[in-house]
Description:
SAM-dependent_MTase, seven-stranded mixed sheet, SAM-dependent_MTases_sf, Methyltransferase FkbM domain-containing protein, alpha/beta, 10 helices, 13 strands, about 240 residues, disordered N terminus, FkbM_mtfrase
Amino acid sequence: xxxxEERSFKDPIHATICGVDVQFRVASAREHRFLPDGAEGHDxxxxxxxxEMHEDEVFFDIGAHIGITSCVIGxxxxxxxxxxxxxxxxxxxxLKTNLELNGIDAIIMDCAISxxxxxxxxxxxxxxxxGMGEVxxxxxxTETPVRTLDGxxxxxxxxxxxxxxxxxxxxxxxxxxxxxxxxxxxxxxLAYIVTHDRPLERLGSSKQEVEELxxxxxxxxxxxxxxxxxxxxxxxxxxxx
Length: 241
């Protein structure tokens, strides 16, 4: 990126998403592509979240990227607990910047989430879906720490989630495989999972297996808010007002 392009992204970009005023600073044209361009798609997602969530939630944003979801949620609910997971170092810096810009105090975890602890290749090439980073089991990519969600909740002193949002390009199946205790907990009552067909197929999985695992963990109300955006809820469990 040349200096002129860097200067073009120096100032914060202001947006109103589902009635919430937020601002973002991006480090590149690639990050800029993820900012809302017309809010309809984002509004649909956030309208549903706002109808389900309250101030006393603990919100896990897995694959937080530059922080769009966490910033909107944090601005809507100033007292909410937020834990962000973003393994890519440059993107994580933008995430930190945007959380600070919006006055949001969140825990930031610098690991990928899967079904085992260790390291894994994290590919940030431009040909990954939507230009986002993707875990690669081929071994090609940047070596990145990987954890299970169950291990983090039990060992790292982070609060247990009540609401989980995940957009991790196929690793959603391994997130679920490595988080049976967390997802089965009565306190974890709501999940929003972006499913990615081709990456799931590469892992020998599918949307159907994602749905089956969620049901096995007690989520009995499943619906797609759009083609690949799955909402899962445990009936009879609501957030405390």
